[in-house]
Design goal:
This protein has 220 residues and is an alpha+beta fold. Helix content is 42%, strand content 13%. It has a single domain, classed as NADH Oxidase, CATH 3.40.109.10.
């Protein structure tokens, strides 16, 4: 069996994984994003793990200004109120996150391309956690893979869900059948600058337990 550590450049892989962030402010709003580049990212995303290896995920690229103009008020109405409610008392890093998210809400119509992640079928309203985890667990890896592939190609993106407050209305605009579930809307653009660094995070040993809840994974 081949030693994959000799095939994959671990240092570059770790750099990609630790510096792919939700990009909200550092997006080039004036440079078009080629559809072919987005399709490349979706091709990569299609190789992400999915339940039963069933290809039930679907994607919609939206780059028509007229269509974005119809969805933008829906997105902004909920996004603005949501962020305003959470801005009270926010400090430090959380305050900066809300500020950047607010910027994206204000400028979402200007982002050259949106990519919507969808999944066929809908869960019942009373779905158990097992069903929820299985269903969304088959979509999230693909969306993250899309974002990683985009980052590798000089594109920034952000996983957003504000449009889901009016999912049915958005579905009518885009012609999405009632049997399809919208998962996320990713504004995608070339990012400006290239100084992304890993975000501060707690060490693995502080957030990982061994065999039982709260049992330390180290002997320290």
């Amino acid at each position: 069996m081949a030693d994959m550590s000799k095939v994959i450049d671990v240092e570059n892989a770790d750099l990609l994984l630790t510096t792919t962030k939700q990009v909200r402010k550092r997006l080039d709003l004036n440079r078009p994003v080629p559809r072919e580049l987005l399709l490349e990212c979706i091709d990569v995303a299609s190789h992400a793990p999915m339940g039963g290896n069933q290809e039930r995920n679907r994607w919609i690229i939206v780059d028509d200004p007229a269509i974005k103009a119809q969805i933008t008020p829906i997105y902004q109405a909920y996004g603005s109120s949501y962020l305003a409610a959470r801005s009270e008392g926010a400090e430090g890093r959380q305050e900066r996150v809300i500020e950047s998210a607010s910027y994206l809400v204000d400028h979402v119509a200007d982002v050259p391309a949106w990519v919507l992640a969808l999944r066929l079928d809908r869960l019942p309203a009373d779905a158990e956690n097992f069903d929820l985890a299985s269903y969304y667990g088959s979509v999230a890896p693909g969306v993250w893979s899309f974002q990683l592939a985009a980052r590798a190609r000089g594109l920034g993106s952000a996983w957003t869900t504000f449009h889901l407050a009016r999912e049915q209305q958005v579905a009518e605009i885009l012609g999405i059948p009632a049997t399809v579930t919208q998962i996320a809307l990713l504004p995608v653009a070339y990012y400006t600058g290239d100084s992304f660094a890993p975000a501060p995070r707690r060490p693995a040993a502080e957030i990982t337990y061994l065999n039982r809840w709260k049992a330390p994974v180290t002997d320290d």
